[in-house]
Design brief:
CATH architecture: 3-Layer(aba) Sandwich
CATH superfamily: Vaccinia Virus protein VP39
Helix content: 25-40%
Bound molecules: S-adenosylmethionine
Number of domains: 1
Structural class: alpha/beta
Mean pLDDT: 96
Number of helices: 7
Strand order of the largest sheet: 3-2-1-4-5-7-6
Radius of gyration: 16 Å
Largest sheet: 7 strands, mixed
Distance between the termini: 33 Å
Low-confidence stretches: none
CATH class: Alpha Beta
CATH topology: Rossmann fold
Amino acid sequence: MEAHETNLLLQAKYNITACFYDLLDYPWERLYQKWRPGLVGDMRGKVLEAGVGTGRNLEFYHRDVELVGIDLSKPMLRRAKKRISKSNCRVQLVNEDATIMQSMPSGEFDWLFSSFMCCVMPDEIQQLAIRQFSRILKPGGRFRVLEIVFSKNRRLRKRQKLFAPFVEAVYGARFDRHTLDYIEQSPQLKITRTSFLKDDTYLLVEGVRV
Ligand SMILES: C[S@@+](CC[C@H](N)C(=O)[O-])C[C@H]1O[C@@H](n2cnc3c(N)ncnc32)[C@H](O)[C@@H]1O
């Protein structure tokens, strides 16, 4: 399937999921809420959040941030818009495909952030998005990408496999994406740290655009 077709399918999925996304995500969001301030709170300058979703991170950005949040789905962005009032920084929300980032200038952003976006993207699409990450960042600009991956622990993995069909059907997300590999292969993105926020399933990849 062409990248464009894959993205249309994902967009259609999120246009529907948007109606009940926050409700559906609630059990997990209780956990993510503990992480979100630390994930974006130290960022300053021009920040691009890719796959901003319903805007769950907006309230945690510092006031010295100029944020551009992009998302493929307009209904998701409409929900994010309602959260702008909680934010302390300047926020611009744009209906934009992260694999193209047509309206985003090259080499202008101090930070690129995304949480749980790459895991919804099939591998070939994901590589396009990662190429865009490196294009829009300034030399020396930093990135932070949070993903969910399969655990190496048998018991945990078994539980994840139980949830996997639901997660894929509703969010398009999979635990077996190769985000870390693709970032590693990107010539201009240098990984400075990888860590897990919980067990060995919530993978945080951090680095710099060289
Ligand atoms: C699982 S949600 C995560 C939302 C948010 N980042 C969070 O942490 O709650 C994934 C989001 O990525 C968006 N997305 C998927 N593919 C995209 C693409 N190619 N460009 C921009 N956004 C995309 C979806 O529309 C959805 O809002």
